[in-house]
Amino acid sequence: MNKLIYIADPMCSWCFGFAPELAKLQAAVAGKLQLELVMGGLRTGADAQALTPEFAQELAHHWQKVTATTEQSFNHDFLNQTNGFIYDTEPACRAVTLMGEAKPEHQLAYLFALQQGFYQQKLDITQPQVLADIANEWLDQSFFADLFDSEAIIEATKQDFEMSRMWQVFSYPTLVYSTGERMIMLSQGYAKCDAILEGIANIEAQLTQQPDDFEQ
């Protein structure tokens, strides 16, 4: 079965803005196209950043733009904290990767739950315990904790980051149509479900008529 590959990050504001459209897309392609998640790693390692007043102002500007475009609401009170918060997206990405390994059928729902927790409920999803609490609907917390710290999950998360960069995806959300042999860019940045479905139909029509026109 051909599939859609969704490259995202739980702490990417545009990915949060895209969440309702992605939910519609998932429902529309169910049984026709598999949806696979790849974590992009928006701010990890040396790119992780302390929440300074200047950075908070920059984030607030981005969040306002997302709201204006998508109508997704943000709790801006999160940006007023002074507890030394570090905007590091690796733990949340690792948690989504973990859910994909343990309970793949709930991975997207977990991603949505993390986004709502961070952007609307002011939860610090850089903290393993918070990530485990949110996952508790699907996974036992002690099982989650064991997997979260395992070398296998840490390495799988790194592989997602490397794959995203190998595909030259540096902005999120991104959707790629994969035939197994070909990788075809479907959308990059926020898009409406109807437009994406139209893009899928166009790709599939061209693959049927002129399969050699696409490059991997």
Automatic annotation (TrEMBL):
<dbReference type="InterPro" id="IPR036249">
    <property type="entry name" value="Thioredoxin-like_sf"/>
</dbReference>
<dbReference type="Pfam" id="PF13743">
    <property type="entry name" value="Thioredoxin_5"/>
</dbReference>
<protein>
    <submittedName>
        <fullName>DsbA family protein</fullName>
    </submittedName>
</protein>
